[in-house]
Amino acid sequence: MGISMGKTGSSSVSDINMTPMIDVLLVLIVIFMIAQPMMQKTMDIQLPKEDKSQREPQTNTNIVMQIEAGGVYKINTLQVSKRELQQKLTEIYRNRPQKVIFVKAGPDIVYQDVIAAMDAARGAGVKVIGAVLPSQEGQIGM
Fold this sequence. Notes:
CATH architecture of the domain at 63-131: 2-Layer Sandwich
Order of helices and strands: HEEEHEHE
Strand content: 15-25%
Structural class: alpha/beta
């Protein structure tokens, strides 16, 4: 490891060479910095904007899928089981020119149920999925 440079001739240097360890650590830091952005998964969403100037009554042709606790799904007011969900959505969206659905779920609903319902809607041909946000009173409403 080291060289003896003295008159005695029998001493050794027992210092650890830090340069290789620092080089390895710097390489690992660079690898993690490059890999971190590739590990992130994103979902593009468009949040609705509240427009208080337009309060005209309109005919409502929107489809709202409500997800309730216990795996209960409602399409507008029709209650559908999880097995029948994609089939019923396919029937609804078969002849509709606008393939838009709004998903309404409370804060106590399991995330997996919401994603499964969104996947069923995508499988039925829905192009745009909107989220119904909680109203000011803390209730879910549209």
